[in-house]
Description:
The chain is of the alpha/beta class. The chain has one domain (21-240): Protein-Tyrosine Phosphatase, Chain A.
Amino acid sequence: MGDFEDNQDRTLKVDGLVNGRDLGGLRRADGTVTPRGVFFRSENVDWITGNGWQQIHDAGIRTVVDLRQQGERNKDTRERPSWLTTIHVDLDGLENKEFWADYWDNGLVGTAIYFLPHLAAMPERAGAAITDVLNAPAGGVLFHCMGGRDRTGLLAMALLHAIGTDPECIIDDYLETVRLGDVRAANSERNNAEPMLEELCRQHGTTTEGAFRNALEKFDLQAFLDAADFTDEDRKALFTWRGATITRSP
């Protein structure tokens, strides 16, 4: 990881995962760090082993919020422990064919180029995912997609931005997944897609980092919250990370 967090390792050490980490420990604008043990991000949790679920429990996580489509979820094969709450929310919304015509078959769905357009076209999707995270049962909340890169990255961007995280820390957290490309590919028995995605971004006049940096810089949190019909209660939970820190307004 980069030099943008406190001296504690944020890696979520869980058998079966290689891209899991705590969103806590990142530098905030007020000089503090984001609270630990509240929100976690990862790739597909169906790869977690039996021992890995014990490690999840030991980390204080009690809820998983799954951002994948139903077709992806149908391929899961492993049982999950009885103490775990799993919440499903399809972040993509493929039924909006008009939107996805510009981002799916051309591969841009695998980049941050689609983040702001998706938030503008379907704010209710990310809004539902974030409110599910915020209103989960007590304990740590882990949210994930398949690779833990872009759907997960979009949610992490919003959560970190809302609590006043240093923008460079938010960017570095996203890039940590990119840096883990070879390891993620090996763990999922696939080829590393990062070189292809970098080239795709270059064809659109940017880079992997540049696309995410642009999304973060232009992300209007207040406009998103209004469009997604966030309640005052959910806004307070967002700005305090479920009461883990003092209230902050955007």
